[in-house]
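Researcher: Good morning. I'm working through a list of sequences from a screen, and I'd like to move beyond sequence-only analysis. For each chain I'm collecting a predicted structure so we can compare shapes side by side. This is the next one on the list. No need for commentary yet; just the structure.
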Amino acid sequence: MLAIQSSSTTKPKTLQPNILPCQIHHSGPISIAERYWNPQPNNTTTATSSSAQSQSQSPASNEVTQHFRGRKLHGKTINLPSSYTGIVAQKTTRQIQTPHQTSSTNIPANDAGYDEEEEQSLPTETFILEQQATFNSITTWDHEKAPSSEEDVYIRGIEEWIGFAESIHAYDIPKTAAES
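Model: Good morning. Structure tokens for this chain:
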């Protein structure tokens, strides 16, 4: 298991993560030059249709463009819901020690459906993820066009995860007799 802890030494920075369509063979710190990566919002409009006959123009406010090593990239920014916060975390070798818990039952040992081994649980190793930064949106990039949720696995995964989280944390409001 993993447990998230805030960095005890500094306040987490706010970042804008980017998922680029390339592979970089480097692992470690780099000196960041802001002047080389400054995505700009697109000033174009996209056609959206609510029916086959009518079309309306709506601004593509979440689409951005940027050049990376001479190649034009098209990006789409996905904003997290206001009640969500994304984190950038680093795995550590530190562990949280959890007390060994056993449950006591009054089931006789000679009961055919009872297995004593089921009652004994192994201690769980819980490693610590240290929070390095937070984010409220994430941008995914593609070469020819802005990524879409139909084609991009990252966008689809983020949208599905948010939908799943909202579903499991939602609750039904019981109907009163007057509403039925």
